[in-house]
Design brief:
binds fe (ii) ion
Amino acid sequence: MPGAATVPEAGLAEAALEQQFERTIARDQRVEPRDWVPDAYRATMVRQIAQHAHSEIIGMQPEGTWITRAPSLRRKAILLAKVQDEAGHGLYLYSACETLGADRADLTGWLISGRQKYSSIFNYPALSFADTGVIGWLVDGAAICNQVPLCRCSYGPYARAMIRICKEESFHQRQGYEQLMTMMNGTAAQQEMVQGAVDRWWWPSLMMFGPPDAASPNTAQSMAWKIKRHTNDELRQRFVDMTVPQAEALGVRLPDPDLRWNPTRGHHDFGAPDWAEFRQVVGGNGPCNAQRVAHRKAAHEAGAWVREAAAAHAAKQAARDGAVA
Ligand SMILES: [Fe+2]
Ligand SMILES: [Fe+2]
């Protein structure tokens, strides 16, 4: 029976490939697109990178609504550049996801149909111009805490995309802080506007790190695969410790009565976010979930003619090249 040996051989080959994968991870080397990976690793990476890409794209909406209403040409130009950066991040990340065999059109379809998620934070509305500054300071600040360790993620294309993205996020954080500093040096009404925005965004920003470690069942596997380097609670603590002195310098109150320095731990103690609210927002029932997805869907449908034109142009080009050859 000539075919009989193929099954054990295939099993052997798979075991050797798995060993190779484990060795790559243990040596802290990068996994590259052509390398064999366990199916679960591929599925986890596709899900994480897609969710990240979707977050960048949906994340353009809360601030995007303020581009036409920003109070000066300078502020409009800054905001426009920032929102464009987020589009760029989305594009890098969709490309990184494609190296794992994912199809870009499928990913967009899964975002629009609600099969794949994006960060819960972008389901909150930006109610005043101060919100754009607070989003830069707190939301981009939290994103940096999450994403800097991802520059050492075991999947090479994701880790490399993250290096440039983190540089731009850090610029976003500073521009937000600079905007808030300007407003805090302004009128009492401007100062109140900033405080109101901080009150609205503080708790949703803490939720960006995900549920507490005890309720985060995927963390252990992601850490074993060196996709994730720190737990949700470690990153949340880092963000709070980093942000408290910035809030003091700015002259705003963080809306948490339990927030205080703990000299024994060498960290700030702080209250728990409302996890019931978090589950509601992740489950699709936040203040803006329906609006965010509807807007993305409308933009995708309105762009159909661009995709058709690009495909027609590519086909024409290919036919011309074929004719020349
Ligand atoms: Fe971004
Ligand atoms: Fe950003």
